Amino acid sequence: MRVIAAKPRHRNESTLAIIFGGRYLGPVTDPIAPKPALKVRLATPRGFCAGVDRAIQIVERALEKYGSPVYVRHEIVHNRHVVERLKNLGAVFVEELDECPTDRPVVFSAHGVPKAVPAEAQRRQLFYLDATCPLVSKVHVEAERHFSAGRQIVLIGHAGHPEVEGTMGQLPEGAVTLIETPDDAARFQPSDPGNLAYVTQTTLSLDDTAEIIGILKRRFPGLPDPHKEDICYATTNRQEAVKRIAADSELVLVIGSPNSSNSVRLVEVARRAGAKVARLIDDAQAVDWSWFEGVSTVGITAGASAPEPLIEALVAAIAARFDAEVVEDSGAHETVTFKLPRVLAET
Ligand code: SF4
User: Fold this and answer.
1) What is the pTM of this model?
2) Hey, what domains does the chain have and what are their CATH numbers?
């Protein structure tokens, strides 16, 4: 570690900086200088949802019951810290089933898988555990119901996301048309406009999706809504919570990994709701403290796959530099839980 003379990044920062391993760790703080005041607004609810919690428990319980390694097809949830912790416990993450040996359990991720995946697991006589979130499975069932009724199905979602691949893969190729944008909705030419149905990815922006559905409904007035909203309770609650804190925050920090759809949506929602700046960060180490220049209120939230200790560490890092007044938002109280697969619940 070394201390160098540096340009202050904040008005109350020292002109000396601590450098460790070539990385700027922060200013040398003067213990008698007053810390600048900062209001911290914590969104509620934030972080883990019931589907993520269940998926992680499935891997943990499988490791306890069957020992390591346990194979996991795709990141169990889209969070680097969660994946690293499970790797350290003995999980092996792979992208395809052919990377799994036949004598070890394999877990399918929370995002869901195309039907071909369990079919292939059965063919190879693999022992598998399905950690697909029950709210994603609900969308799969809906899509199948529409298909059985002979409807042409539109899936609103993002190409390449594993959940979209899983939902499209419930049905034969060509049965589902993916719509990603309002332009796609405006251009869509169904073969039978009077016999359409739509489902959505569970982690979309509520406002963007409403816009796309609005276009489809104007063009195809009989288009029915799903029995129950496909965008899940956790996505809805987190977007509403970030809207409440964003309007009076100059900076909003969303903890989550870049491949986490719902976390990326929270950044977009915060910007639209009035945050001057909104950034996605993996953890407190990713903060550039110059972002706080001129900021009097910072909003903090976390995507549905981000663990609460990452938020606690960020608040602690802020409190070390600022005279922080932390105000917790009073949002929806979530009580949703999902059962584990029976074979693990019995352990
Ligand atoms: Fe399930 Fe929603 Fe969580 Fe995805 S974000 S795992 S759909 S509860």
Assistant:
1) 0.89
2) 1-29 (no CATH), 50-134 (3.40.50.11270), 135-219 (3.40.1010.20)
